[in-house]
Amino acid sequence: MTSTKTVTDRGALAKGFQLRELPAAMSQDRLRLLPLIIVLLIVWMVLQYLTGGLFLSARNLTNLSGQVAITAVLTAGAVLVMIPGYIDLSLGATVAAAAVVAAIAGTNYELSLWPTIVITLAFGLLIGLWHAFWVAWMKVPSFIVTLGSLLAIRGLSLVITNAETISPNPDILVISDASLSPMLSIVVLFAFWLAFALLQVREWRARQAAGIRSSFGAVVGLPAASVGIFTLGVMIMAASYRGLPLPVVLVLAVVALAGWFLRFTAFGRRLYAIGGNRQAALLAGINIRMQASLVFAFMGLLYGLAGLVLVARLDSAPPGAMQGLELNVIAAAVIGGTSLMGGRGTVAGAVIGAILMESLSNGMSLMNLPSAYQSITVGLVLLFAVYADLRSRGGRFGD
């Protein structure tokens, strides 16, 4: 029989974690946003100089947006996976498999655009639920589960296609070719920034009402200014060329949805609690199994969405495509402030990290540097990002 003292200790443990650790962790993540954007702008200026003015041309930025779309969509989901302390190593294989499914549905079965989209998303969701079953219910570490999927699904794609590239139904190309008009693009981007700023104001008021001391500048001013600077740059690019590409619109929708769930719902607060102190979260009554299931199911939908963007962008479905994508996504998330140990991270920071990673890759391609240098860059950036995360925690991995 549980003693009164034990119950009291458990309640104190859970309450203490929620009141003291969680707000501080979220505030630190938010304050990383402005320096990260400054670093991104500096990298862009350097690449503009090194490429002789090609990098910031409207044509190249439009091409870059297509590259970023897949990484950014997956990074937004990876943040939700990593905050409670999990990881997903199957990203490249599952996205390539989703692209193969989309191509087969449109070509072999002659399905139109919308049925193809539904089937591809359903396939991704099925893979996500498969991961959830093994991680949440069978208690197998996510590292092992997703590593197994990386190998098995990559092999399955090769078997289904006989290791041959499949061409999709031309209808699906609208996903990569369509763009909003320049004026509508500006309206959408301004609405996105305004919604972000208003949500920051709402959070600041909620913190004040709860008695948590926080300055208006730290909670509202710096994040709104940071995102505003970046949004203004995207507005200028969109207005000077074809408008906002549809993949970018999809990224904005995913970022808004994931960011909302993470920061303004009980679901998001539970994810932070699980990653920050799993034992305290369990004692506080959080259903860790259900939270993990929902996270991996959402990640599964993003597999399908990224697969659709991939097959539309390439106009083909190579079964061996996107090798190493998982490393780029994890590196982008860590650069954006998401901790490999869980408990910390923001969607906005991770997406900016994805833009930074793809900018480096794009810039090196424009300079005709071999792909080996891109791999070296990703590895070094990931190493220093993890080191910075450990230093900010004041300890070593596992402390």
Automatic annotation (TrEMBL):
GO terms for molecular function: transmembrane transporter activity. The chain crosses the membrane at residues 33-58, 64-82, 89-107, 113-133, 140-160, 180-199, 219-238, 244-262, 294-314, 372-390. It is a multi-pass membrane protein. GO terms for cellular component: plasma membrane. Keywords: Cell inner membrane, Cell membrane, Membrane, Sugar transport, Transmembrane, Transmembrane helix, Transport. InterPro entries: ABC_transp_permease. Pfam families: BPD_transp_2. It comes from the Bacteria. The keyword Transmembrane helix applies. It is found in: Cell membrane. Part of the binding-protein-dependent transport system for D-xylose. Probably responsible for the translocation of the substrate across the membrane. This is Xylose transport system permease protein XylH. It comes from Bradyrhizobium niftali.
